[in-house]
Write a structure and sequence with these properties.
Belongs to the UPF0346 family. The protein has 72 residues and is mainly alpha-helical. The protein has four helices and no strands.
Length: 72
């Protein structure tokens, strides 16, 4: 399974900016984002301490569901 970061990068460069693409752009620019992680708790904790916008954790949870369902 690829890392969550790798999955998240599929949302970068969207012509229609939404919260998923905002999160992807932020993670790309954040040098400390856990780019190799496949662990929900590690990523969730990181976002709790470094949330780039108010709904980022909600967006992450939605994307995590998609990641775990479709990224085997």
């Amino acid at each position: 399974m690829r890392s969550f970061y790798h999955f998240l990068m599929t949302y970068r460069g969207s012509k229609q900016v939404d919260d998923a693409s905002r999160l992807a752009e932020w993670a790309f620019a954040d040098h400390y984002f856990p780019k190799q992680s496949k662990d929900y708790d590690e990523l969730s904790n990181y976002l709790e301490w470094n949330s780039p916008f108010p709904t980022a954790l909600m967006v992450f949870d939605d994307l995590w569901d998609t990641y775990t369902m479709h990224d085997d």
